[in-house]
Amino acid sequence: MTRGHRVRSRVGDPQAASSAPDLAPDVFVMRVLLEETREMFPVTNCRGDMTVRELKEELDLVAGIPVDLQRLQYLDQGVLMDDTTLKFHDVVPGGIISLCVWRYDGWTELVLAAAEGDPSKLSCLGVTEDSFYQTANSQHLKEKQWKKWVSQRAFVALYIASHRGHVEAVQYLLEHGANCLSRTPVGRTPLHVAAAMGQLDCISLLLKYGASTNDKDAKGMTPVVISRRLNHKHNERQYKMLLLHWVANPSDRQDRPQGVLSNFFGSQSDSDGKPSRKPAPDLSGSVRRLPPGGAAARG
């Protein structure tokens, strides 16, 4: 008997519960707790057949943690393998999955500093080429490899800081050479996550330093499309900012202007074919921070 069946058997008619088909919704919401920062992120549109890898790809955007740094756990089951499904692990609607950062090469400390948005802490963690910071791994790297290592750390810090709207940290990282065109393993740039979270000041900074509005992630989504679909309270200003950048930068345009413009102003269609502008879920303000050791960490 699965955990889901045990929960359902406690309410209503036991006989009816035993003879009824699986009543778990096809699509549901669950929560993910980033253990290092105590931030809680709701994840919508989850399915029983969703793989752990697919969930990680969602968290790359929703939680702002690159997929290759994520380690997911549910209850006491240990690390969840990428090719397993939520149903396999008996994940229930509203359940909480723990997200941890892999504890190697100093990534945990870097993620904490970037999530906090403190430039003084970031400056001590190997995000600039004049840094004296070393790990057991980095001290054996040759110059070319070491520069690549620093560049990757600077990008990860920029990605996380952009997601959380830490303007001072973003400014510091960009001024010290962080590449705003670098991508996570699923093809997302800092502009993708800044647009997803409606971080207007960070969007402005990233555009100033050469971020592209048309870079596509692995799902074919540009920052413009993400901004269009997520209905933030500041979306009109955000659309205008991105559109003005597109108009002022011919090299950043797609081949067909009408295709780009439709990303901003195009409408969806209802089942009857009539235009619709139904708002997509708003991710801004959806993150909340739990106290250390809070009971909510396990339900």
Would you give an account of this structure?
This protein is of the alpha+beta class. The chain has a single domain (29-298), classed as Alpha Horseshoe (Serine Threonine Protein Phosphatase 5, Tetratricopeptide repeat). The chain contains 12 helices and 7 strands. It has helices at 3-8, 14-19, 52-62, 107-116, 119-122, 143-164, 167-175, 190-197, 200-208, 223-229, 235-248, 257-265; strands spanning 28-34, 39-46, 70-73, 96-101, 268-269, 275-276, 288-289. The strands form 2 sheets. The chain has a 5-stranded mixed beta sheet. It starts with a helix and ends in a 10-residue tail after the last strand. Keywords: ANK repeat. Residues 30-106 form the Ubiquitin-like domain.
